[in-house]
TrEMBL record:
This is Secondary thiamine-phosphate synthase enzyme. InterPro entries: UPF0047_YjbQ-like (IPR001602), YjbQ-like_sf (IPR035917). NCBIfam families: TIGR00149_YjbQ (TIGR00149). Pfam families: YjbQ. PANTHER family: SECONDARY THIAMINE-PHOSPHATE SYNTHASE ENZYME, UNCHARACTERIZED PROTEIN YJBQ-RELATED. It comes from Calothrix parasitica NIES-267.
Amino acid sequence: MLIINKIIEIETNEGINIHNITPQVEAIISSSEIKNGHILVFSRHTTTALAINEDESRLLEDVKVFLQNLAPSSDKYLHNDLHLRGDIPPDEPMNAHSHLMAMMLSSSEVIPIVDGKLALGTYQSVLFFELDGARKRTVFCQISGISEQ
């Protein structure tokens, strides 16, 4: 069995934004020699998330509204009492709402690879959620599998 590790870098915007990273994940698979196995896609940040769903603009706007209603940035959160927290960087944002949204989603997805391709359904895409932004983010990908059928 082969194991290959790769990183996807994403420049995000302010607030909630959703990026379809399916092409980057597919490129990692096609550049590998793995034909059958799986890929772990893992978000390396506490205010980002991953999901497999449809990349349809109106649905993605619905998701943003849903998440904002779930954890409004205007609510009072203990995590945002920055003066009561020790050892924080000077540019620390008040982002408790972003952490809460991320916990309601997922930090990783595992997707089967069959014949060198993602085994996603017709309308499925790998979506990366920026819930805080704007930042440079990284997604860790680990492919495990075999090169022959």
